[in-house]
């Protein structure tokens, strides 16, 4: 028998895993690596139950296919993965007779139509958010000049130098807010794009957050150091990731663990466009999770789950990521919330 044409599976959008006669992984295509967020070279020779959890339905599908020597379809398969928790899939198990017996597993995410609908809704919401933020920035920018001028006049009337430090704080914060408002009001093409290392972005965020909350918070790194350079606005990306991480720390009240993870995502569809390669950043925390009533509107302006929150952090993060032709997804349950940022590699 001729060798199995693995090359034909490399470019499939369908996730495919090939098991040998010992039911161990012999091949996994890029779409499956992306779906399960795993590296194929680390899985070869492992049984499925060594890699995944909740494999009872999968074991049954494989058994039925082998027993009947025919394809078996499990329409509502739940499979546990290390990176994404439980995935709901449709699985087809097909026995093959090549130079030896093997089993071909095809996986289709059941939530793909829902995901496309969410992307459409998110794109529309991002446009609406951007308009609202521009209007809000315009209204905030005008009084800032008056606040700054009043602080400078007050400083001239103060005799004690120690008191002038407070007016300097007012001036500096007014300048910072004015700069932020100008960025929100400026057109997208005013961004400063250049080649950058995404890990420099994450390291900056990590150092800032740990400086803000030095006790009780642990930030772990899980980086793929082989990632190529990304073209983007470094300051915007830092602000976007910083807002997500700060949101996580607020949810955990400064106590818990955050994981910063990077991977290469292959054959990704991001906002209706297919990309051969993309950078995937994940911010994972072990906090209480996002309340169900907020999950559909977490990116809306002025929506916050915290009493002292202003509800703009995730809105700004989504806006900055969308300007990079990327998107933000999240999955949340008590004890694990994962925000995934996808940025296409040009």
Multimerization status: single chain
CATH homology superfamily name of the largest domain: Histidine kinase-like ATPase, C-terminal domain
CATH topology of the largest domain: Heat Shock Protein 90
Question: What is the architecture of the largest domain at the second tier of CATH?
Answer: 2-Layer Sandwich
Mean pLDDT: 81
Number of strands: 12
Strand content: 25-35%
Order of helices and strands: HEEHHHEEEHHEHEEHEEHEE
What is the CATH C level class of the largest domain, in words?
Alpha Beta
Instruction: Bin the helical content.
Output: 40-55%
Overall shape: it is elongated
Taken together, the total number of domains comes to 3
Task: Using the CA coordinates, give the radius of gyration.
Answer: 25 Å
Tally of helical runs: 9
**N-end to C-end Cα span:** 40 Å
- Sheet having the most strands: 5 strands, antiparallel
Give an account of the 3D structure.
It is a single chain. This protein has helices spanning 6-10, 30-36, 48-51, 56-68, 112-157, 161-185, 198-212, 234-251, 313-323, and strands at 15-19, 25-28, 72-81, 85-97, 101-109, 194-196, 217-222, 230-232, 256-270, 273-285, 327-333, 336-344. It is α+β, with helices and mostly antiparallel strands. It has a 5-stranded antiparallel β-sheet. The chain has a 5-stranded mixed β-sheet with strand order 7-9-10-12-11. The mean pLDDT is 81. It has 3 domains: 6-110, PAS domain (Beta-Lactamase, 2-Layer Sandwich); 112-186; 192-346, Histidine kinase-like ATPase, C-terminal domain (Heat Shock Protein 90). The protein starts with 5 loop residues before the first helix and ends with a strand.
């Amino acid at each position: 028998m001729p060798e199995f044409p693995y090359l034909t599976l490399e470019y499939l959008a369908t996730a495919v895993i090939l098991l040998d006669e010992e039911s161990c992984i012999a091949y996994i295509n890029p779409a499956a690596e992306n779906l399960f967020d795993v590296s194929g070279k680390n899985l070869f020779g492992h049984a499925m139950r060594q890699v995944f959890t909740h494999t009872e339905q999968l074991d049954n599908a494989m058994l039925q296919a082998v027993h009947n020597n025919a394809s078996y379809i499990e329409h509502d398969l739940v499979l546990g993965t290390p990176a994404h928790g439980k995935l709901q899939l449709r699985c087809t198990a097909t026995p093959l007779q090549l130079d030896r017996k093997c089993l071909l597993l095809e996986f289709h995410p059941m939530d793909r139509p829902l995901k496309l609908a969410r992307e459409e809704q998110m794109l529309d919401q991002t446009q609406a958010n951007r308009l609202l933020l521009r209007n809000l920035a315009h209204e905030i920018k005008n009084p800032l000049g008056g606040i700054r001028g009043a602080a400078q006049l007050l400083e001239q009337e103060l005799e004690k130098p120690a008191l002038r430090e407070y007016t300097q704080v007012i001036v500096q914060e007014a300048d910072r807010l004015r700069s932020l408002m100008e960025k929100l009001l400026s057109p997208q093409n005013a961004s400063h794009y250049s080649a950058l290392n995404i890990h420099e972005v994450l390291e900056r965020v990590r150092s800032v957050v740990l400086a803000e909350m030095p006790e009780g918070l642990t930030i772990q790194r899980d980086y793929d150091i082989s990632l190529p350079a990304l073209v983007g606005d470094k300051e915007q990306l830092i602000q976007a990731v910083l807002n997500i991480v700060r949101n996580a720390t607020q949810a955990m009240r400064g106590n818990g663990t955050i994981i910063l993870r990077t991977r290469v995502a292959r054959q990704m569809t991001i906002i209706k466009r297919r990309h051969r390669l993309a950078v995937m950043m994940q911010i994972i925390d072990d906090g209480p999770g996002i309340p169900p009533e907020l999950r559909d509107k977490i990116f809306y302006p002025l929506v916050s789950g915290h009493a002292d929150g202003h509800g703009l952090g995730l809105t700004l993060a989504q806006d900055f990521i969308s300007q990079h032709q990327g998107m933000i997804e999240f999955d949340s349950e008590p004890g694990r919330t994962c925000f995934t940022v996808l940025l296409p590699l040009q």
